[in-house]
Write a structure and sequence with these properties.
Largest sheet of chain B: 5 strands, mixed
Number of domains of chain A: 2
Number of strands of chain B: 8
Largest interface: A-B, 45 and 43 residues
Chains: A alpha/beta, B alpha/beta, C alpha/beta
Shape of chain A: flat
Number of helices of chain B: 13
Strand order of the largest sheet of chain A: 1-9-8-7-6-2-3
Oligomer: heterotrimer
Structural class of chain B: alpha/beta
Structural class of chain A: alpha/beta
Strand order of the largest sheet of chain B: 2-1-3-4-8
Order of helices and strands of chain B: HEEHEHEHEEEHHEHHHHHHH
Helix content of chain B: 25-40%
Radius of gyration of chain B: 21 Å
Strand content of chain B: 5-15%
Chain lengths: 345, 343, 275
């Protein structure tokens, strides 16, 4: 269904959603972040993009899998700890981040289902904001089969028409959310629809950077596995974790046991985000490391996103949000790297 | 004025002579204002070098990287590495020399003076430009910055957008170099610890709340550690998995390795990480400010290290990075030291 | 299986521990029996994640044959945190088991063929399940041969079982260097392969051991006329989730824990050489 929501009335809609946990972009110091808001008046969608992608809500950085311990009779007990039953709504998700959730679904809810991710995903609605202008100078979503007004992955998509939002519901979950705020919404006029089309068409032209002919990249990468290209590109890499931790599609994780008490014995098995750029990501217990140097790790990152994932799932594992470009401490620019790969040799 | 042409000429000269393996300097990035670290291997490549107030990076980290890489190399090229250093960066070289991590012959230092100004703080600049995007920044003789955006150029007084550490800077001219560009101009710094003192002045409860809020944000991306030239330990004490494994490391050693902090990025582990790191950098941090610049969540990490620097100066009269022959702060004592347990 | 929690291990009791090899890198063979579950069905070559609660999980090949229903067998070398703790455990202690994980040897396709098992050191354990299954269904397969070696005679695993094995199939053993009392071949396993000259006619070679041994065994087999799709091996990599989503164990597009660990040489040489 399609509706119009006056910006002034936005908090009223949020008030009706009191059964849900509401996440919205909040300004912290110099940057924006998705946080839980408790007062409907705090809702506002006038923001570029957040530093951390909304993946941190669906796939949190620390997730408890199970609890283990010794009972009073000294027998070992192991119990699973599932995510809390709590419906949530994330407001203001940009199309690149929503598409990223669909890509992560391919991994976590494919032929083997990760119950923890699945539960959070099911109980969280995604209300998006299309990008009238690119939130970042480094956005390149159109180069990787995306668009600033793409509907992929949303339950509801809002488009800013100035003093009001054009509201488009795309799923049953979206319909339910709109029905909760029934009278707050009005029907769209023809002029609204015209404005919407105009904004959407123009938004695609506003992206400043692009990777032309991205289709040529996966086959090119396959040939470049042994190339010295990676040594040159990775020379300034600092092996920090910024590009992967901020990336909306990156999902690698570690499983470890945290013992909280020795007597009585008690602890948790937890999942934490991990990072293929850390030197010990692939190190065997024997000390052998298939990716001992920065070149092989940068190669892994680019090839995973632009060749392995494409081969497996027919999609780039990158939605062009530009966070890795903006935040890399030494300015390693994935757009530049991809353009060089395409023209290599 | 630092003349870029002179810098390029010298770079070409030493590359042509084969005296250095390569030169680490700054080159123009693919897009936007910030330059990127560049590794110039041949004389023609020196034309890519650039120098402007956006050259914030501390390039000495790459000297540390190269030192580690050389250990694995079967046929190491032991020629020195040319590196462009600002005043603060040159202090980092001094600390590396003091700790004998590198030898003086390992580096050829092309010092560059910051003269009347310093480097720009990208966030302050963005606020000043109110949403407009800077694409170039130059410095005038009188100490103003000329910032070019997509809609034109404007003059901005340097103090408005200088990095905090430049306002408190003790070394705007390189303290060690093989050749230097630019003049030595004394800058008056009233209080090198003014930013730290602002936080120290807060009542204890507010200070605690401030730090707990800030450290709770941390996602342990370890960028602060990765960018710091002084964090060169192969085995970091606060890292739970990185440790050196040789073919003869026994299973017992691996099994009994102490986990000082867990992998979880929650407040208690983050506190241990940041405070331990600050303690390990006491008497070694030269306030290049990189840790704070690279943090994606704007955690004011620099204050922790600056506080250590203030204590080192006030309690032990210790200055970091000016003398490559001085003993380290934590492994030396003087008779006048305040603690008496050592006597 | 859809509702089962893929990260929750099932509890199993250790019912037997046998010391195979002592020294600095001891190897013990563990037999574990599920406390509750009796529907665990695995195929030859598959692995399982064994949990030591409080220390972590590690992936091991199940070395018992699927024909054995009472227990699962793992041969484990003491390497680090999890395995050191396993080596201190006693019969009756509880571990967790998640599995079966990974792909398996296509033994259905090998019916009627000769099977040549080539192992080095602890590498015998992953292929032991196939060997035992083939022995248990002897009439379905051609002649069986085992070429196995270790650094010294003290490093040979499954010593008792090997003596029994000689009664039912050809067994060629070797040690790397001369040793007092050793009457069989002296040299590396690939050299023993060249020495014993198994024929590639209607044969499948299954090999596992240290990576460098596998490399030279494949070369030796190639010299004897084995085609790439007649040679099978298992690959190892650092693993955490075991189900192909934590992103750690990949070689190219493949996840070793899910698309592997069993590969034919024809498949393996197409993958990027990053393991």
């Amino acid at each position: 269904m399609e509706k119009i929501l006056q910006k002034k009335a936005f908090p009223k809609w949020v008030e009706k959603l009191d059964a849900y946990e509401i996440y919205a972009p909040v300004k912290k110091d110099n940057y924006w972040s998705y946080e839980i808001i408790n007062t409907s008046g705090d809702i506002g969608l006038d923001f570029p993009n957040t530093v951390q992608a909304p993946k941190k809500i669906i796939n949190p950085q620390r997730e408890v899998f199970l609890e283990f311990g010794r009972s009073e009779e000294n027998s070992l007990e192991v119990t699973e700890v599932l995510p809390e039953e709590k419906s949530g709504v994330i407001f203001g998700v940009r199309p690149c981040d929503a598409k990223a959730l669909l890509l992560t679904d391919l991994v976590f809810s494919g032929d083997i289902k990760d119950g923890y991710y699945g539960k959070r995903r099911k109980q969280t609605a995604i209300v998006g904001l299309s990008c009238n202008t690119p939130p970042s100078p480094n956005c390149f979503c159109t180069s990787v089969d995306g668009s600033p007004h793409s509907q992929d992955g949303f339950d509801i998509l809002l488009t800013d028409l100035g003093d009001r939002y054009f509201v488009k519901s795309l799923t049953k979950k979206g319909d339910e959310l709109i029905n909760l705020g029934k009278s707050i919404f009005t029907a769209p006029k023809d002029s609204d629809k015209k404005e919407l089309t105009k904004i959407h068409t123009e938004s695609e032209k506003k992206l400043k950077r692009q990777v032309k002919d991205a289709k040529k990249i996966p086959p090119k990468l396959k040939e470049m596995f042994e190339s010295p290209f990676w040594d040159e590109e990775s020379m300034s890499c600092l092996r920090c974790g910024i590009c992967t931790y901020l990336c909306p599609t990156c999902h690698c994780f570690d499983i470890s046991d945290e013992v909280t008490s020795v007597a009585p014995f008690k602890g948790y098995r937890i999942r934490t985000w991990d990072n293929c750029q850390f030197p010990d990501f692939t190190m065997h217990s024997s000390g052998h490391n298939p990716r001992p140097d920065k070149a092989s790790r940068l190669r892994q990152r680019i090839m995973h996103k632009y060749q392995y994932f494409v081969e497996r799932y027919q999609n780039y594992q990158c939605t062009g949000c530009g966070r890795c470009v903006s935040k890399c401490p030494v300015g390693i620019d994935i757009i530049e790297v991809l353009n060089k790969v395409r023209d290599y040799g | 004025m630092v003349k870029l042409e002179d810098l390029k000429k010298e770079a070409k000269r030493i590359l042509k002579s084969g005296k250095v393996k390569y030169i680490i300097g700054y080159a123009k990035g693919a897009d936007g204002l910030m330059p990127i670290p560049a590794f110039i291997k041949d004389p023609d490549g020196a034309d890519d070098l650039t120098w402007n107030p956006a050259c914030v990076h501390n390039l000495t980290k790459f000297i540390v990287d190269e030192k580690k890489r050389l250990k694995q190399d079967k046929n190491p090229d032991n020629r020195p590495i040319g590196i462009i250093v600002k005043g603060c960066d040159s202090r980092a070289i001094n600390v590396l020399l003091q700790e004998k991590y590198i030898d003086r012959e390992d580096v050829y230092l092309l010092g560059v003076s910051c003269e009347k100004t310093g480097v720009v703080d990208e966030k302050k600049l963005a606020k000043k430009l109110k949403g407009q995007r800077a694409v170039q920044i130059d410095v005038e003789d009188n100490g103003n910055f000329i910032v070019t955006t997509e809609s034109g150029s404007e003059k901005i007084p340097a103090e408005d957008v200088l990095a905090e550490r430049c306002i408190e800077c003790k070394a705007n001219f390189p303290v060690i170099f093989d050749i230097v560009f630019g003049e030595k101009i004394k800058r008056r710094v009233d209080n090198p610890f003014q930013s730290v003192e602002k936080i120290e002045a807060l009542p204890q409860e507010d200070r605690w709340k401030f730090w707990m809020e800030q450290l709770d944000k941390c996602i342990r991306c370890y960028a602060c550690r990765s960018v710091c030239p002084m964090c060169y330990c192969d085995e970091c004490v606060v890292d739970t998995i990185s440790f050196v494994v040789e073919p003869d490391t026994t299973a017992e050693e691996k099994a009994q390795k102490i986990k000082w902090i867990e992998k979880s990025p929650n407040l208690s582990e983050n506190i241990v990480y940041h405070l331990t790191r600050a303690m390990h950098l006491a008497g070694r941090c030269i306030d290049c400010g990189e840790c704070e610049r690279v943090c994606p969540l704007d955690i004011p990490i620099r204050f922790l290290n600056k506080k250590m620097e203030k204590d080192a100066k006030n309690l032990f009269d210790y200055e970091v990075g000016f003398d490559p022959d001085q003993p380290s702060l934590v492994s030396s004592f003087k008779d006048e030291d305040p603690e008496d347990f050592i006597r | 299986m859809d509702n089962a929690n893929v990260y929750l291990p099932k509890l199993a009791k250790i019912i037997q521990i046998k010391e195979e090899v002592g020294g600095a890198r001891p190897i013990k063979t563990f037999r574990a029996q599920f406390l509750n579950e009796n529907q665990f069905v695995h195929h030859c070559g598959q692995c399982a994640m064994v949990s030591v609660f409080g220390k972590g999980e590690s992936m091991f090949a199940i070395s018992s044959s699927p024909l054995v229903k009472d227990f699962l067998q793992f041969s484990i070398m003491k390497m680090g945190r999890v395995t050191s703790e396993l080596h201190t455990m006693k019969e009756g202690d509880i571990v967790g088991i998640r599995g079966p994980l990974g792909n398996s040897f296509p033994i259905e396709d090998w019916k009627g063929k000769k099977l040549i098992f080539i192992g080095g050191g602890i590498g015998l354990a992953p292929i032991w399940s196939v060997l035992q299954t083939a022995l248990g269904q002897k009439k379905d397969y051609g002649d069986l041969m085992l070429i196995y070696g270790a650094r010294t005679s003290k490093d040979i695993v499954f010593k008792d079982e090997l003596d029994e094995l000689r009664k039912e199939m050809t067994v060629h053993l070797s040690v790397d260097v001369e040793e007092e009392g050793w009457k069989e071949f002296v040299g590396f396993v690939p050299q023993n392969v060249t020495d014993k000259k198994p024929s590639p006619k209607n044969a499948i070679a299954i090999t596992c051991g240290p990576p460098i041994m596998i490399k030279f065994v494949i070369q030796a087999l190639g010299d004897l006329g084995f085609k790439d799709d007649q040679i099978y091996t298992t690959v190892e990599n650092k693993m955490k989730c075991g189900i192909g989503i934590c992103g750690r164990c990949n070689i190219g597009m493949h996840y070793v824990c899910k698309d592997g660990p069993v590969y034919s040489w024809a498949e393996l040489k197409e993958l990027p050489q990053e393991y």
